[in-house]
Amino acid sequence: MEVYNKHQREGIWKRYIKDIPDNNYFLTLSCVLGAFYPGSESMIPKIYDLLGLNWGTNPSTCSGWTCCSGIAYHGDIMPIEGTLLTVARLWSIAQELGFDAVTTSCVTSFGIHCECKVLYEHEPGLKEKVDKWLKDSCGREFEIPRYISHVSDIYYRYRNELRDKHMQFELVEEKSGRPLRVVDHVGCHYSKLFPEEHSLGGADYCEVLSGMAKAWGGENVDYPERRHCCGMGFRQCMITPNRGGTMASVLKKMRSMSPFEPDLIITNCPGCQAFLDKEQWAIYEVTGEKYFIPVITYQELAGLLLGWDPYETVGIQFHTVPVEPLLDKIGIPYDKNSPWADCIVPHPSI
Amino acid sequence: MSHKRVVIVGGGVTGLRSAIALDDFGIESTIIEKKSEVGGRVVGYSKIFPDFRDGRKIVDDLAGAVSSSSRIGIIKETTIDHVQKKDVNYTITLSNGSVIVADAVVLTCGFETFDATRQGEYGYGVYPNIITSVELEDFLNPHGSTKGKLLRPFDGNPAKRIAIIFCVGSRNKRIGNPYCSRICCSYSTKQAIEIKELDEESSVTCFYMDIRTYGRGFEEMYQYAQDIGVKYIRGRVSECSTLLNGDIQVRAENTLLGRPVQGIFDLVSLSVGMMPCADAGKMSELFGIRRGSDGFFIAEDEDFNPHSTDTQGVFIAGSVTGLKPIRDCLLDGASVAGKVASYLKKLDNK
Amino acid sequence: MEDRSNLIDESAYHMHMALSQMSQEFYYTERCLQCGICTEVCPFTRLNTIDKFSPREFIQRLRLGLLDLSGEDLWYCTNCGSCEMVCPFEIPFVKVMSSLRNLVVKQGAGYLPATLKNSISSLSTYNNPWMEDPDRRSDWMRGIDIPAHKKNSPRKILLFIGCFPSYDVDGKRIARSAVRLLNRVNINFETLGNKEVCCGDSSFRSGDSDGFEKLKNINTSNFAEKGIRYIYTLSPHCFDVMSKWYFKDNEYHVKPFILLIHELISSNILKLKKPINKRIAFHDPCFLCKHNKIIDEPREILKSISGAEFVEMEHCGAKSMCCGGGGGGVFLDRKKGERLSEIRLDEAVRSGADILVTACPLCLSMLGDSAKSDDRYSDIRIMDICELVLEAV
User: Fold this and answer.
1) pTM
2) Rama region for B10: left / alpha / beta (φ>0; ψ in -120 to 50; rest)
3) Is the ipTM of this complex over 0.95?
4) pLDDT digits (tens, 9 = 90+) for A168-187
5) What are phi and psi of C228, to 5 degrees?
6) Residue span of the structural domain in which B342 resides
7) Which tens digits make up the pLDDT trace of C229-250?
8) Are B257 and C13 an interchain contact pair (Cβ–Cβ within 8 Å)?
């Protein structure tokens, strides 16, 4: 008998299905993803074009584009009114370009957009107030978008098409044919904020990343701290006295998952990606415990399996935990003589 | 078409008891039971709180009294398809095609247990070593599927460390069951005692919100449980997850110490609450009786006429009116007979 | 490196089994419903300190195997017994504390405060807790003559002095007053002199049950040698431990000295002629009022003093508030502002009393020392009841 009944899990997560639009996406960008893992963000437009979708964005200052204000709001330096106004402007830009589906590249943005949408639903008179503020401040008008999705929802929606038509590799160990053991780490603001309305699969058995992993040949790992937050949280990682909490959360997760011997961790949130990746090195420095399980975003995973160049397009050189061993496992070729390959500090565990 | 005085819907202990009580009045009745055996749920309980009688024996005694009377008939494996009211009579069409005209109807359809998969965080169905209290009853029954031995479903090894989680599906507004199921504290304590008496070396930990052992002899049973070493931790369990060997990790807060606790167990039993019976909606429609916000039937007057409904001639008894221990169901069965008898007398005198 | 203190696992079961085999008291803790009434009445919770002591929490941690004996909190309990008086399930918490302290003292299973360690070892070597010379134990008697023989005395009693009245500066006042009182009546009394050793209460309460047994054996053989069957103790602690733990049969009758005073006054043998025109409050020692239900007798004594106005403090009788001396507390140093005796003295001040009377040498020591260290209490005189009665005869 299996320790983890996958069939029953299907029954549970399927109670939380959300409506994912197929086309006409407005893309918002993340504050940090482009800086930490530029490949991830730059591949999104490539995938959209590959699938032939109608999409648009306008990240230029003259349009009035800004960050969604998630950092400010969650870091307690901006009240909710400021966030509502900022998001309203973003929605106005989207509607100007003619899109009714907002797809966010960052999970914090996703959480912020959903929170605003839910606030409008539950608080009478709020829309009118924000209409007035937006008009007075920059002369814009906005409507509440019909769909708010995360880009990982889109990848999920098109996972089979990507696999069947475009992918050249699978999440399988080349030599033995064994499906790779994948830990899916979904951002808290995706799955836990509004589990019934906006999360694919709810909070406990969130399916968005594990669905992708399954579709692309891998096998999910269920471990006790699967639902545990990575510890990023702006009030934890941005404030020096609290940084220990972030590292402790990552350590807890790593300790819990290591008996299950996962091959990789997939994330859909820039914060989770950054900290699960970088804290593994800090943990080694502080405690001496070696984990070094590669952490990659779903965009990077898709890019690798599509056969795009690991350094030029996917950008695995930005990772702290080396991803090359994973490429070797799957059998994805990469230039071993590339100068990027030399930047990796050789580590005794590898 | 046959004319019967009283039709009793549901052949559990309440239905059987009311038939016997009616028989004492000299009134004939027919029991309609959807399963192939009478006795309902009680037949599966080897020990009933607070005095630990054998449920099978109770049912056998009742069934024996029923079969020895010529005035009580039983129709098994049948349900009700259609009901038509004509004057003061009820024309009932059964699923086996036969039609009965009844002067009075007593609904004793019992209850359902909460579907534990609705609380995804407990992992019922996904992790094999997590069972419900209903399944635990079966394990503890010497005539049950494991012949009275406590074994882990995952690998069949003996279960030494058991956790019992209270309030699953009850006192929970989020899943729509804000009420207290009243008997779970008591039956869980009974099960804990049974486990400890079966194996002195086993360790039983109960995670509770409150201990509502309210009835006569119940509190003493709880004290006895404590004396024999059952551990009680006050704190609602937040999640159950699995380890590699099938052990279950349970997390809660020990609110009395103000700190989180974590435990590793062989077997986790979810004490599920009671819900209205599956046919409640159908019966309510067929017979035109009201249901409360909790889904159970409402009497004409809860204080003065607890057995009568808004519909003349239709009576309710047992768990259909709310959650109660077996002793109280038997009491209900006996007392509804008096109400029916006086009703029939009035009918006859017209 | 991993903090396993919040894990429920088999070690809890084994710890509990081990403790239950050691003493039956742990079995009784299974009944605890965690209602919290014990914590509310515990005098320690009245202190405004950072360290919190909750009997309820202690039992919860004990039952779950999460007990940590490396902290100081095991030694906060003064054995006053307030908790036992209110517990709906009659859990013998004081005995549980005692058994746990045994674990620490005999097996080194935890932290033992240094001052207590010294007292315990002194008791086993010098038979008193301060490493005082045993041959100077009856030095307090200098200057007082005990009449050698009272020919017509109806009975003979043994006066057990105790360590505090023998050696402590304030305690000696009790011993001398008691003897002077007895000299005024026709009762033939004796003391054990330098052969007397500590009754063993301090060892018993601090968890050194072996030390206690040793002292008990010395005392009981001395009693047997003397052959006097009526024993009166100056300290309620000595009374409690002797009456409950020394003798298996009714051969010896042990009583606290205050009961003798009460008997003498109420039968008019001791006449209180001098008035004392003061307001007097009585601090009930825990080992009289709570453990042995002796509440009315001291009050009757005080009320029979002419001119005295008797006032009650907020916590009186069975609800009396502990001075902090029991359970080894008298040997521990607590910081100013963290002392139970200060709270008690505040109550005495609030009651308007001029004299605060008590009937226990440990209470006298605790209250007296705290009173001396603060000007707030300079108007109150702390006395033992023997002294007061002596002033009134």
Assistant:
1) 0.87
2) left
3) no
4) 999 999 999 999 999 999 99
5) -95, 130
6) 5-110+277-349
7) 899 999 999 999 999 989 877 7
8) no
